[in-house]
Write a structure and sequence with these properties.
- Helices cover 20% and strands 24% of the residues.
- With 377 residues, the protein is α+β, with helices and mostly antiparallel strands.
- The longest helix has 14 residues, at 99-112.
- The strands form eight sheets. A four-stranded antiparallel sheet has the order 3-4-5-6, with no helix packed on it.
- It contains seven helices and 27 strands.
- α1 (21-31) packs across α5.
- It is flat and about 85 Å long.
Length: 377
């Protein structure tokens, strides 16, 4: 998508206002970076009610859910794109711009250069710092005095604004950030509607601090978990994330999940949510998927924080894409028995469900399923 150099056009005088998408995105950016609604809306000539209606509609653009169609009098997406490109953008020759592509690329351009159109002659300081790594359309920005996220100044767990140097504030990786004085972690409270907060990572060595994923980090002296906990690792140089695995039976994939993994290890220990997993051998520990993990001797079902007593670690397995499976949530098996949610299941109860798996695996013999088959004659 190429940027055009034509002069900005004023917002439409129609009762149902349509703004070029870059002006809309710049408006959102200024509102999220310390400017008041009164001063921003005065620039684009909208009332609060007009802005609320426009914003509610524009939030659906590019989503695939056409709740925005009525606002544009039922126009198709190509016609809407043509109206929203505005005077500064044009489709590359021979290419068609989708509504999703328009909203994605233009929005990110506006984050980096919001002084366009009605904002071109303002002296408002609003600097983009970084996008959040796993929260779509969320970013850090500053106005020269404070750093903002989701339109609010960064605050600690108690809601007190933090003394952060905006000029040097930067994203390091994951949920880890820094300025010239400190390293910071980003935590959250609550589930469905979380409240975000930030804290200083005590005694972190800024020169060697290395984010490993959204939860774990290390420096030359210690390791860290995102709740603010320092991990007592005697070998921080060996501290690393243990990938989780997502078993996707729809596309037959097994995806290693590094960024979101809750597991880590060093030379001496395995860590689960930042706490030592007692008895786990870091050298042989691996995550199997569906909530299970094992090392050479033990098996765990982590969704219930349970060590599975009596499981045979050497043969323990979770059905993976490409293998027939019983279709039971969190099911697994070893040569001794099968499991659901980490709990042993009676052979006679689950025999039929596991039949496709064991008939597929002619290489297995003398497992619990074969013994039950022999008993049944």
């Amino acid at each position: 998508m190429a940027r055009k150099r034509a002069a900005a056009q004023p917002a439409s005088a129609e009762p149902r206002v349509v703004l070029p998408y870059d002006v809309y995105a710049a408006t959102r950016f200024f509102l999220a970076t310390g400017r008041t609604e009164d001063e921003v809306l005065a620039r684009i000539g909208l009332t609060p009610a007009q802005w609320a209606a426009l914003k509610q509609t524009y939030e659906w653009l590019g989503s695939g859910v056409r709740l925005y169609a009525d606002y544009f009098d039922g126009a198709d997406d190509a016609a809407i794109v043509a109206r929203l490109l505005g005077p500064r953008w044009a489709a590359p020759e021979g290419q068609e711009i989708t509504l999703g592509g328009l909203t994605y690329h233009v929005e990110r351009a506006a984050w980096k250069q919001p002084h366009i159109g009605p904002y071109a002659d303002t002296d408002w300081k609003a600097e983009f710092i970084a996008a959040h790594p796993d929260m779509t359309r969320c970013y850090y920005s500053h106005d020269g005095e404070r750093v903002y996220f989701l339109g609010q100044p960064l605050a600690d767990r108690d809601g007190k604004p933090m003394d952060i140097d905006p000029a040097s504030f930067r994203w390091l990786g994951g949920r880890w950030l820094a300025d010239a004085r400190h390293v910071y972690g980003q935590g959250q409270l609550g589930g469905a509607r979380p409240r975000y907060y930030w804290y200083i990572v005590d005694d972190a060595d800024r020169d060697t601090f290395t984010p490993l994923n959204f939860r774990y980090a290390r420096d030359a002296r210690r390791a860290y978990y995102i709740t603010g906990k320092s991990i007592r690792s005697t070998h921080p140089e060996s501290f690393e994330v243990v990938p989780e695995v997502r078993l996707n039976f729809r596309d037959m994939s097994q995806d290693p999940l590094v960024d979101t993994s809750v597991f880590a290890r060093d030379r001496d220990h395995v860590y689960f949510y930042g706490t030592r997993l007692r008895g786990a051998d870091p050298a042989t520990f691996r995550v199997l998927g569906k909530g299970y993990s094992r090392d050479a001797q033990r098996v765990w079902f982590h969704d219930a924080k349970r060590l599975i007593e009596g499981a045979d670690a050497a043969t323990f397995r979770v059905p993976v894409p490409g293998e027939p499976h019983p279709g039971i949530r969190a099911c697994a098996t070893d040569r001794l028995r099968s499991y659901v949610d980490g709990l042993p299941q009676p052979a006679e109860k689950v025999f039929d469900g596991w039949r496709p798996f064991f008939e597929f695996h002619a290489d297995l013999s003398d497992w619990w399923w074969h013994r039950e088959a022999a008993r049944r004659g």
